[in-house]
Amino acid sequence: MKPNSFLSMTHPPAVMGVLNVTPDSFSDGGRHATLELALRHALSMQDEGADIIDVGGESSRPGAAPVSVAEELDRVCPVIERLRSASDIAISVDTSTPAVMLEAVRLGASMINDIRALSREGALEAVSRCGVPVCLMHMQGAPATMQQNPAYTDVVAEVEQFLIARTDAAVAAGISRSRIAWDPGFGFGKTIQHNLQLLQALPKFVASGHPLLVGVSRKSMLGHLTGRPVDQRLAAGLAVATIAAQAGAAVIRTHDVRETIDAVKVAAAFVRGQL
Ligand code: YH5
Question: For a pLDDT cut of 90, what percent of the chain falls above it?
Answer without folding.
Answer: 87
